[in-house]
Amino acid sequence: MDHLKSLEVFACIADAGNLTRCASTLSLSRSAVTRAVNKLESQLNLRLLQRSTHKVTLTSEGEQVLEHARELLHAFRALEAVGNENAAEIAGEIRVNAPTLFGAHFAGRALATFAARHPATRIDLQLIDAGVDVIGSSADLTICLARRLPQTMVARRAGEVAIGLYASPGYLQSSAPLTEPSQLGEHECLVHRGLPSGIDWVFAAREPRLRQTYRHRPVGRFTSNSQEALLNAAQSGLGLAMLPEFAAAPAVLTGRLRRVLKDWSIEPLRIHLVYAREHQSARLRRLVQHLVDSFGAQVALAGRRSEADGGVQVPARCRMPSMPCPRPEAAREAVDAEVCEKS
Fold it and tell me: How many C-beta atoms lie closer than 10 Å to residue 71's C-beta?
């Protein structure tokens, strides 16, 4: 008899109060129940039961073991439920919010594949450039691009999106030289209004031995809460824009944009799948895993071409985590939390 079965028998004896009733409940012989308890006591090297002719009571050690036994049995039954859900066909509506550019490039495709595999599901995808509001939102899942999230949010990491600084050839030709981040103060910066105030552009030298970082607070005469609007403004020659590589890649290939400060790296945005802790249906869990798998394959293909002027564009990166993001229960937020860098 396996360990879990022995624990189940022990918990049943504690509930029933004697061996005979437990044997009847579990459809076992009384001798099988006795053997299971004896084996468990031998394995733990503890006396768990006080036996009398008509009654069985727990020792103090038995009380402690019973508490852990119930936890283990509950956890195993939860695993069995997940297995049953995965074996069954899923159905119902799943409402998803995603940033506009990322949603158009990647989320829509991944969700369409999921819907095709599960014909009883209905997908409602809303493309929104706004902050994450899990409590106030009607969405089951929100896809957020951010370096960090508040500690109170429950999320699964699904990879990373590489970021670059871009401008049109016309803007670069008519503006001051730009070879170092310290020269950004002489340039027009296109500002993403959707970010929390005080979020800076942070650059790190690609040469490890230099260990240089530079922080610049962007200011300019064009602001927007939409990365798509910033992309169009950059192509129109209005200034410098911090953009996801996948979004800028087509304009780079056609010569409408150039990447600048290529000797400096920018911390990538992480892809977070944010959902409410209380509502994790089988269809939502299946969708989250599908998106984790899909985004790794899709995003890694973006941004691999060389720039038109011969410079090498860093590939868009997407590392696939094997476990969900830890989300401590403490209500404090990360000090430098970037609530949602939507694209």
Answer: 11
Hey, what domains does the chain have and what are their CATH numbers? Answer: 3-87 (1.10.10.10), 164-266 (3.40.190.290)
Q: What is the spatial distance between Cα 138 and Cα 3, in angstroms, rounded to a whole number? A: 44
Q: Which of 52-56, 98-102, 231-235 has the highest mean pLDDT?
A: 231-235
76: three-class secondary structure by DSSP: helix
**DSSP assignment of 144-208, as one string?**
EEES---TT-EEEEEEEE-EEEEE-HHHHHHS---SSGGGGGGS-EEEETTSPTTPPEEEEESST
Contact between residue 59 and residue 40 where contact means Cβ atoms under 8 Å apart: no
Sheet holding 189-192, edge to edge: 222-224, 189-192, 240-244, 163-167, 258-260
- Extract the tokens encoding 143: 């896809």
pLDDT above 90: percentage of residues in the chain: 19
User: What are the pLDDT digits (tens) for 110-164?
Assistant: 999 999 999 998 999 988 876 655 555 678 888 888 877 776 677 888 888 888 9
Q: Is the dihedral of CA 113, 322, 102, 135 positive or negative?
A: positive
Q: What type of residue is 108? A: G
The answer to whether the beta carbons of residues 341 and 266 sit under 8 Å apart is no
Buried b / exposed e across 240-273, counting CB within 10 Å, b at 16+? Answer: bbbbbbbbbbebbeeebbbbbbeebbbebbbbbb
Q: Measuring CA to CA, which residue among 287, 298, 320, 303 is closest to residue 104?
A: 298
Beta carbons of 343 and 99 less than 8 angstroms apart: yes
Q: What phi-psi label fits residue 255: left (phi over 0), alpha (psi between -120 and 50 degrees) or beta?
A: left
Higher pLDDT, 135 or 176: 176
Residues 6+ apart with CB under 8 A from 100: 127, 128, 129, 226, 227, 228, 342, 343
